[in-house]
Amino acid sequence: MHPERLKALRELSSLLKEKKDVPQELWGMAGMKVGARLKDVEKEIVAMKKNVSKDIKSQMMEKQQTMLEDEAKRHGVTVEELVGKTQEEREFNMQLKRNRERARDGDRAKKEVQRQTDLGEYDMAVDYV
User: Fold this and answer.
1) Which string of DSSP letters, residue by residue, matches the chain?
2) Its domain of life (predicted)?
C-alpha cells in the first residue's frame, strides 16, 4: 500500500504544482480530501516517508535482536551477557589502539628530536664552547 499511495501523492503534488486538473480517483488513491492544498499534500508525503523509515528501522532492530538471540543460544549465554562481552572486547580493542597510538606518537617525537640533532654533512661541529 505504501508505494502506491506514495506514488499517487507524488503525482498529485506534481499536478497541483503545475496547476492542472486532478482526476477524482487520484484524490482517493492518495487518501487526501478533494481540493487539498499543495502544502498539505507535501506534508503528507514527508510524513509517509518518515513512517516508512521508522518501519524499516524497527524491522532491522528486530532482525538484529533475533540474530543476537540465536548467537547467544549457540554460545549458551544470555543476550545481555553476549552484548556485555562484545562491548568489553570493543573497549579492550580501543584501549590497545590508544596504547599503539601513544607509542607511535612517542616514537615519532624521538625520531624528530634525533633528526634535528643529527649533524648534517655541512654542519660545523666544535668540541668547545
Assistant:
1) -HHHHHHHHHHHHHHHHTT----HHHHHHHT--TT--HHHHHHHHHHHHHHHHHHHHHHHHHHHHHHHHHHHHHHTS-HHHHHHHHHHHHHHHHHHHHHHHHHHHHHHHHHHHHHHHS--TT----S--
2) Eukaryota
